Amino acid sequence: MSLRSGRRVFWAAALLLCAAGLLLSLLTGPVRTPLGDLARLFRHPDPVRWAIIVDLRLSRAVLAFLVGAALSLSGAILQGYFRNPMADPFVVGVSSGASLGAVLATALGFEAAAFGFSGPGLLAFISGLGLVMFVYALSLRRGGFKVETLLLTGIAAGALASALTSFFLFMRSDSYDQAVFWLLGSFQLAEWGQVATIAPWVVLGLLASVWLARDMDLLALGDDTAQALGSPVRRVRMAFLAMSALLAALAVAVSGIIGFVGLVVPHWVRILIGPSHRRLFIASALAGGTFLLYCDLIARNLLPAELPIGVITAAVGAPFFLYLLHKKR
Amino acid sequence: MKLGGERHLRMAGGGSAYGDMYLRYVSPVLAALSLLLMSTPAATGGMPEGRGLVLTLRGHVPRVHVPYTRALRASSPTPSGVDAIPQTVADDLGHPFPLPAETPRKIVSMAPNITEILFALGLGGRVVGATRFCDWPDEAKAVPRIGGLVDPNVEVIRSLDPDLVIAFRGNPLRLVERIRKLDLPVFVLDIGRRLDDLFPLIERIGRITRTEDRAAGLAGTLHRRLRAADEALRDLPSRPSVFVLLYGQGLWTCGGESYVDDLIARAGGLNVAAAMPKKWVLYKREAIIANDPDVIFILARSTADFAAGRDRLLKMPGLSSVKAVKAGRIFEIDENAASRFGPRLVEVLVRMAALVHPERFGGAA
User: Quick check: pTM over 0.80?
Assistant: First the structure.
């Protein structure tokens, strides 16, 4: 199979799976919903059915898709940025910073809502971005910085933030559900307000990264070469770092830490459709969203009680990832 | 972690006394009321849990969950016509709740103690959803399940189409808020720190379900039984020390902030862990030996659990010197009743009192 026709299969499969996942999300749940109910919904809207299918299930499916797209895109950007396949939103400290902010907000009783975020969500966003800026500032050295320094600083700062998070969770041992939410993620609280909060940013992030994708391709040749070929390397790097941090922080703010999506999905996509960044960014967003949509389906339907979604992303993602990796070799 | 969390929650809950609550929340409620009448979008927001930062945000509007017209109907206009404002009560998060005109027909209870109180008020037939822990009285087991305390299912609750959801402060607050956003009338109740807090709890459930008279009747009955116990325990010459063991892994006991501590004090005993400023604490083996309790209570779900807990305790080195062990005063307390902040606490109290002071209850000293 040529790469070109392989690509076509990928796009068709991703779109089809995405549509099927969306439909499945509307039909499955603890309350039985036959297909006929979905059809009846629009002819005779009944408030209970409407609330369950539209307010709860649809908003949740859309949010899961958007968060998956954001995390995966953020991972794809960072892997290109660091020219390192191990990079993901965790590495630069966004996720740990965001969860620290959220847990701190809970511990302080900061519950007011603003801009469609809950109090902890807002603080998660701010602290996630804050930690990245801190890491970035620390790794700047007289006019330039080394990628390795940034990577290592990010890991160290992230570890520190994680330790503090665990500390605050431990101090408030009565907030068990909060702990699980912020450490393993969940879409249980999904609502349209959250969708409206993150949707514009995901779209904007995707457009901007596609627009800058050529420069990312050049960065793969090395900063000096890229500079020589006319790419404004420093500004491009800054823009990509800001974008990926923003996307990941938004994702954590609405759904807690969901691991593995940002690391694994861009890899799958790269293996399947090749390394060109323009295609990679779009495909990563689509595949990441679809992947998380299915993970959430499993998380909320596997057991009578909901599972944290982080458990599913790792359990489903890791074996599939290993398979692809070894098949390719 | 999961099981531990559930167990912890089943017995825990946060918050302060009710009088304090009223004081703290009067102003947000008034603000909300004026808001309801003027329907302007700016007001001060009710702030739950004054644990640390307290802030009021313009534009953060406390939502009122009963349609405007229905809320208005709920008020019975006084002859003078002055009091046309719908009556509202604040829940334990400070959210204003308009009193319904009549008893809700479909009630969802999100905690076992609330379910017990609803059944005690004769509302069992109207409870359409309860947690999987709601097993008292027996009829409660037949009520459709909405999930557990920390994992209630929002979708299931919505599908029951309730006209009243009573939540517990220990339910995940964010989930409770999510339910509120589905335009379901939610009322959140905390558990108390003292046995006497049971009465305002019953009174408020009676109020929001418009069964005030039955609630008063239930409270009266419980009061009488409490008074009889208090009477029997008057002018105690001594207060035996008591160690409470929660059956399970480790030496979990109740600290001074738990209502069980208050139960022990009210039963004429002294909780050896009373000085620990927590609800539930992990106790040390040496501390039991050093404190030398006169009586040991084991909260167990079954007699088999009790026996297992007692045997494990007796096997611990050094424990044979403890007074309670030497005198054979290790007793079973029904965990199912004692762990729920509901009417059965009065029975638990009477049993504890009779075990701590058998001489006052017609038993051998």
Answer: no
